[in-house]
């Protein structure tokens, strides 16, 4: 019996690694697009979790600092395969772009890849994927006029004041409004979600997050180690950023260019390279670290910038299911989920739509890709290949 259980656990971990690696190789378009890819793969196709659980996990990760899409992926891995499932989900989704950017750090200095036709095609793929995810999530998360109104207000405010801290404020306000409106609302959450990590482990993870945040700057001041300085800069960047990868890019520019760690040309080349690879935008840290100190620097930078996200999601997940089922918290989550829909629609417009759809042919191609994904039920990896190929051909028209 124990042998059978071990075999099932091993197969589950291998499955998590394979699925997350495929997503890591095909998920282009930034954090909002990644949530669309995850929704399509984990909720629609594999049914590893239900719509409400996925929506609540997205809401939690939107509220936490760090890369929201990576945290969602880690959370799904933990729910599926425990602590090691979370690690494998993270490695599968992140390593492809880390390896690519460390290699490209040697070749892309001074090069501009941001205007390549195939990259433009991948941006249009992101339009189709995110539109598909928004349609599915809005149907489930904004079924009544009150939640549609919350989503609309979140959409308008996010578009008018495009600031990561405004986004956090919207989520907090939506939680308060949801609590006041829906505190007596009874809504089934289906089966209880089990997390194979203890609350004690969660407390330790949160304690380590705050300990490193406060101790690393002190250690940096009292030592002359460049490695500690590098680790501190990336750990702080990963700890204090709300709003995902698009927000961390300018923060990293302020951290490393004025201080002379790398020049502006190398930074801009890396920015273009990061847009060209799949996976989380936080892997831009791997490029910067590799430019500064080779592959070892890339590895240290990657660990440092993602470690806060890992500690935060491991620290909060053991308490998440209990909180979301609490009658006082349930209404707040309903408000937050509605606000997240509005925030996703705002992000769909800017930066995804504004950076992708600039001509009628772009819209026509996006409509074709959307139909392939939604109506013809073609897999996401195939849509990515068609998008890249079509984007290259469009430059010849």
Short structural description:
The chain has 397 residues and is mainly alpha-helical. The chain contains 15 helices and no strands.
Explain what this protein looks like in three dimensions:
The protein has helices spanning 2-26, 31-45, 51-63, 68-104, 117-141, 145-160, 164-182, 199-222, 226-239, 245-256, 264-276, 284-325, 327-356, 360-374, 380-394. It is mostly helical and 397 residues long. The protein has one domain (1-188, 195-392). The longest helix has 42 residues, at 284-325. The model has no long low-confidence stretch (mean pLDDT 83). The chain crosses the membrane at residues 83-105, 117-137, 149-182, 202-222, 272-292, 299-320, 332-350.
Descriptive terms for the model:
79% helix; 397 residues; mainly alpha; Chr_Tranpt_l_chain; transmembrane
- Rg over CA atoms: 21 Å
Number of helices: 15
Q: What do the pLDDT scores average to?
A: 83
The strand count comes to 0
Tell the overall outline.
Answer: globular
> What is the total domain count?
1
**pLDDT < 50 stretches:** none
Subcellular location: Cell membrane
GO molecular function: chromate transmembrane transporter activity
Transmembrane segments: 83-105, 117-137, 149-182, 202-222, 272-292, 299-320, 332-350
InterPro entries: Chr_Tranpt_l_chain, Chromate_transpt
């Amino acid at each position: 019996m124990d042998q059978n259980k071990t075999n099932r656990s091993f197969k589950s971990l291998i499955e998590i690694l394979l699925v997350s690696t495929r997503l890591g190789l095909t998920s282009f378009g930034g954090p909002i697009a990644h949530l669309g890819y995850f929704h399509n793969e984990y909720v629609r196709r594999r049914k590893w979790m239900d719509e409400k659980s996925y929506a609540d996990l997205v809401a939690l990760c939107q509220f936490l600092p760090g890369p929201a899409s990576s945290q969602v992926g880690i959370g799904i891995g933990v729910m599926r395969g425990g602590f090691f499932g979370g690690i494998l989900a993270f490695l599968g989704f992140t390593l492809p772009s880390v390896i690519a950017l460390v290699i490209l750090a040697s070749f892309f200095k001074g090069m501009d890849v941001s205007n390549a036709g195939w990259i433009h095609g991948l941006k249009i793929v992101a339009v189709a994927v995110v539109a598909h995810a928004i349609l599915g999530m809005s149907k489930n998360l904004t079924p009544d006029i009150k939640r549609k109104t919350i989503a609309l207000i979140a959409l308008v405010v996010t578009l008018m004041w495009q600031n990561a801290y405004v986004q956090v404020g919207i989520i907090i306000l939506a939680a308060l409004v949801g609590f006041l409106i829906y505190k007596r609302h009874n809504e089934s959450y289906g089966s209880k979600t089990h997390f194979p990590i203890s609350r004690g482990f969660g407390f330790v993870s949160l304690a380590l997050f705050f300990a490193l945040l406060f101790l690393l700057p002190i250690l940096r001041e009292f030592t002359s180690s460049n490695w500690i300085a590098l680790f501190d800069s990336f750990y702080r960047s990963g700890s204090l950023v709300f709003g995902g990868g698009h927000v961390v890019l300018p923060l990293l520019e302020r951290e490393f260019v004025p201080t002379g760690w790398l020049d502006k040309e190398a930074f801009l080349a890396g920015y273009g390279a990061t847009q060209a690879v799949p996976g989380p935008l936080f892997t831009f840290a791997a490029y910067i670290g590799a430019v500064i100190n080779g592959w070892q620097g890339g590895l240290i930078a990657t660990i440092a910038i993602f470690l806060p996200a890992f500690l935060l999601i491991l620290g909060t997940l053991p308490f998440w299911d209990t909180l979301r089922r609490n009658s006082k918290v349930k209404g707040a989550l309903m408000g937050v989920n509605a606000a997240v829909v509005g925030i996703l629609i705002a992000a769909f417009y800017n930066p995804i739509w504004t950076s992708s759809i600039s001509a009628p042919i772009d819209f026509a191609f996006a409509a074709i890709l959307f139909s392939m994904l939604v109506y013809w039920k073609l897999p996401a990896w195939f849509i990515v290949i068609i998008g890249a190929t079509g984007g290259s051909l469009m430059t010849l028209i």
